[in-house]
From TrEMBL:
<protein>
    <recommendedName>
        <fullName>MORN repeat-containing protein 5</fullName>
    </recommendedName>
</protein>
<dbReference type="Pfam" id="PF02493">
    <property type="entry name" value="MORN"/>
</dbReference>
<keyword id="KW-0496">Mitochondrion</keyword>
<dbReference type="InterPro" id="IPR042814">
    <property type="entry name" value="Morn5"/>
</dbReference>
<keyword id="KW-0966">Cell projection</keyword>
<dbReference type="GO" id="GO:0031514">
    <property type="term" value="C:motile cilium"/>
</dbReference>
<keyword id="KW-0677">Repeat</keyword>
<keyword id="KW-0282">Flagellum</keyword>
<keyword id="KW-0969">Cilium</keyword>
<dbReference type="InterPro" id="IPR003409">
    <property type="entry name" value="MORN"/>
</dbReference>
Amino acid sequence: MAPLSQEDRDRILSALDAPDSIEGGSSVLKFDNGVAYDGELSNGRFHGTGTIVFPEGTVEAVWAHGVASDPVVTFHDGLRFHDDVSWDYCTEDDQRFQSEITDPLLLQDPVRLRNDGGPAAIPQGTYDIGTGFLDIGKDAVFTYDGKLIEKPSEALRQWAVANCYVATGAQYS
């Protein structure tokens, strides 16, 4: 998810400072970063039933003056998370991807290294960390299409070396 633009931040802050600038009732608010809110508003805040729609999923909740109660998160692959239900996805006991739960692997199927069937094409010698790749030589994390995300922490570097696949040409090892 892309961060909010300064214009979106200013629009939200000005709405909170002058709540009457956003009408009450049911509305759709669209932000420059692709996120939208579809639901009820009161005094410029999410209030009542509403859904925040992200490019990769949604958050449905009943809102009280901007605070969500009992949110349900639905990821792009259909996996749902709800606070009052024990989270049994990707645990120590069951490390399957959501796609393996909804479409189980058969014995003759190739191993899945990623939920989307991957692996992603990443440069040789880099680590696939799930949200992009870590290039230790450049001390940077990149998106799969090569855009710089961040400088990795020491903890991330150690975790990647210990747990992630490293690209060694056409194959992962």
